[in-house]
Amino acid sequence: MFRRERSIPLRGSAAALCNNLSVLQLPVRNLTHFGVVHGPSAQLLSAAPEGVPLAQRQLQAKEGAGVSPPLITQVHWCVLPFRVLLVLTSHRGIQMYESDGSVMVYWHALDAGDASLVQAVFARGIAASGHFICVGMWSGRVLVFDIPAKGPNIVLSEELAGHQTPITDIATEPAQGQLDCKPLENRDCVADMVTADDSGLLCVWQSGPEFKLLTRIPGFGVPCPSVQLWQGTVAAGYGNGQVRLYEASTGTLHVQIDAHARAICALDLAPEVGKLLSAAEDTFVHIWQLSRSPEGGYIEVEHCHGECVPDTQVCGARFCDPSGSSFAVTGYDLAEILRFSSM
Amino acid sequence: MSVRTLPLLFLNLGGEMLYILDQRLRAQNIPGDKARKVLNDIISTMFNRKFMEELFKPQELYSKKALRTVYDRLAHASIMRLNQASMDKLYDLMTMAFKYQVLLCPRPKDVLLVTFNHLDAIKGFIQDSPTILHQVDETFQQLTEIYGGLSAGEFQLIRQTLLIFFQDLHIRVSIFLKDKVQNSNGRFVLPVSGPLPWGTKVPGLVRTFNNKGEEVRKVEFKHGGSYVAAPKEGSFELYGDRVLKLGTNMYSVNRPMETHMSGASENLAAQTQESIAPNPLAKEELNLLARLIGGMEIKKPSGPEPGFRLNLFTTDEEEETSRRTKSWLGSWGSLRSWTSQGGVPARAMICLP
Fold first, then answer.
1. Which partner for A223 in A4, A49, A266, B153 could form a disulfide, CB atoms 3.0-4.6 Å apart?
2. Residue B186 CA: distances (Å) to CA of A51, A297, B28, B171, B176
């Protein structure tokens, strides 16, 4: 059972985008950072354990050429081995900041080049993989940036081709989730990144100095707005309300959940305990327990909890602690972050 | 965002405008021939070929202010006159209605069915005018050509673009409050029951498969809602059962259409913020707007046809309250002086701080 905790007010309401909430947990400092996209601006704020807001900052999308100010598509914290960067994607480019948003360390302008007149040009989908940051594009390409341990000397090292339609989300194997823990030394699973797109296609990759495409998991006519990766299992949320879990290395479908009545907008993982969170435009947030079956070793899912956020078209949801005992939700038109914790 | 959004926004808002005007014309007992002339003039201006050509070009959405200017012009395409307060209220009702329809569309693609519902109703208004009917059918063909082949992902982007346009608008509308589709805080009710989108299964089932693809387990869970599968998919043909009721005419003769002024000041503050903030890109928007409106052929009220004034308010007192609430909006002042003059070149229409 979960109860509503005190909400955190936002300066501007959340935009109707998918994956519109990023959370950076800093348990050592007793702080949680939240990032929400409003439209042409994104809001970062930090809060103390009881949800007491401490500091906030607004970031704007860079380069205002055109009829209207450019819109931000996503804001996301990337936890790398030696630093944390905040990445912001928009219809003009990719902005990378120090984790508190105080200093922009890198700007990559989008090259509209091949886009036809009718295609919207934007970057969307952000994830950290080792010392790389991967960002998706409207074209289906995924840009791989090599991030140094400190400083602004960020280099575009690779452009991955696997998708033909706009990237929606990227997920990587969590490195135990927290800034102060060492990343996994001996990895059993070779597949450590998955990218998703508007056609529902998933590509599974192995990271490295050169990323290698391992598997392709075809879509079925609906977008896949949100994806997660946990211990070799891909969890994907689709536009028809389904959540599907696949074996990452082979692409085999193991679990199919008719989870929601509208398009899924966000998935999140509490990797230490194997909990999965799904949120959708149907106003519901569901929490699932992932486990391995004793017989076949394949993934199994059990429903733990469902929460209705009345009259709210949810657009972002994240766990707020590593044990998955609390989560936060944003909704379209809502100027606050709703918080829930288990009793 | 999506560069394919403007036609859908324009046609649906235009459709809502016609529903409201039609209801007010009947409520004010405007003679049948005059009422028909007004609707015919507005509809033929809306669906003018040159105008539609401009509209359908891939482009970003206009600002709320710029779009409002287009409707001001459209509403005055005939012998009917609306004063400032009535025009404001008309626009509030139009935008909240379409916001509601977009928000409640089960699938992003259903916004096309909403558009077809509006077009079907518009054809009902002009049944005795074959020329205008033909214009509307042509627009229908264009919509089918452009949107018929779009993917679910592209429709999702269109939906997101529309919702960003309507973000933070919470004007309370009497008819919505009475029907309990809007809460007293201005937010729409999102039901957790009813028909599902076409292509979505009833939530509540977890199916597990082994490595060979055989189902090994099937478990139900309590999902919290009360949904039923959609009976059938709405038709995207020129004629057909759209199934979806969103976008059909919700105004019958006796239904009220007040907006609640007590909540208005908070909404006006949000809207003012947009008017006051300086817009350095206004020149480009001005040019786009001029091209769009330049395509509109507005009939100026000629000699023997006397114009008449339509009132969106049921009582003078309500109108006076509205006028007092809005009189401090400095930026609307120049717009008011424009509308009283009638035909003014496009460049003079935009009021910018």
1. B153
2. 26, 51, 28, 6, 9
DSSP string, A57-115: EEEE-S---SSSPPPEEEEEEEE-SS-EEEEEEESSEEEEEETTSSSEEEEEE---TT-
Neighbours of A187 (CB within 10 A): 13
DSSP A183: P
Rg (CA), chain A: 18
The two beta strands, B226-228 and B193-195, are: parallel
Tokens representing residue A292 in the block: 């391995």
Contacts of B172 (CB under 8 A, 6+ apart): B182, B184, B186, B259, B260, B263
Q: What is the Cα–Cα distance from A254 to A243, expressed in whole angstroms?
A: 11
B210: exposed, middle or buried (C-beta count within 10 Å: 0-12, 13-18, 19+)?
Answer: middle
Q: At what angle do helices B84-104 and B6-27 cross, to 10 degrees?
A: 130
Chain A residue with CA closest to B281: the answer is A67
Whole-angstrom distance, CA of residue B126 vs CA of residue B144: 21
Architecture of domain A2-176+189-342 in this structure:
7 Propeller (2.130)
pLDDT of residue B111: 97
Contacts of B168 in chain A (CB under 8 A): 13, 333
At which residue do the structure tokens 């919290």 appear? B224
Domain residue spans of chain A:
2-176+189-342
Buried-exposed string B105-114: b where 16+ CB fall within 10 A, e elsewhere = bbbbbbbbbb
Rounded to whole angstroms, the Cα distance separating A258 from A261 reads 8
Q: Are A292 and A241 in contact (CB under 8 A)?
A: no
| Selection from A147, A158, A153 nearest residue A78 by Cα | A147
- Closest partner residue to B227 (CB to CB) among A71, A261, A263 is A261
Chain A residue numbers with beta carbons less than 8 Å from the beta carbon of B192 are 261, 282-284, 308
Taking the CA of residue B29 and the nearest CA in chain A, the distance in Å comes to 39
Specify whether the CB–CB gap between A74 and A124 falls below 8 A: yes
Q: Which of A332-341, B110-119, B248-257 has the lowest mean pLDDT?
A: B248-257
The CA distance from A144 to the nearest CA of chain B, in Å, is 24
Q: Are strands A167-172 and A155-160 parallel, antiparallel or unpaired?
A: unpaired
In whole angstroms, give the CA distance from residue A63 to residue A70.
7
The candidate with the shortest Cα–Cα distance to A171, out of A195, A140, A139, A144, is A195
* pLDDT, tens only, B289-333: 666 666 555 555 555 556 778 887 765 555 555 555 554 333 333
- Residue B230 C-alpha, separation from nearest chain A C-alpha, in angstroms: 11
Cβ atoms within 10 A of the Cβ of B347, count?
10
pTM of this structure: 0.87
The total number of residues written for chain A in this structure:
343
B195-205 CB burial, b ≥16 within 10 A, e <16:
ebbbbbbebbb
pLDDT (tens digit per residue) in B186-198? 999 999 999 999 9
- Contact between B152 and A260 using a beta-carbon 8 Å cutoff: no
Q: Over the range B32-43, which residues count as b (16 or more CB within 10 Å of their CB) and which as e?
A: eebbbbbbbbbb
Quickly tell me which residue has 């959405």 as its tokens: B61
Assembly ipTM: 0.92
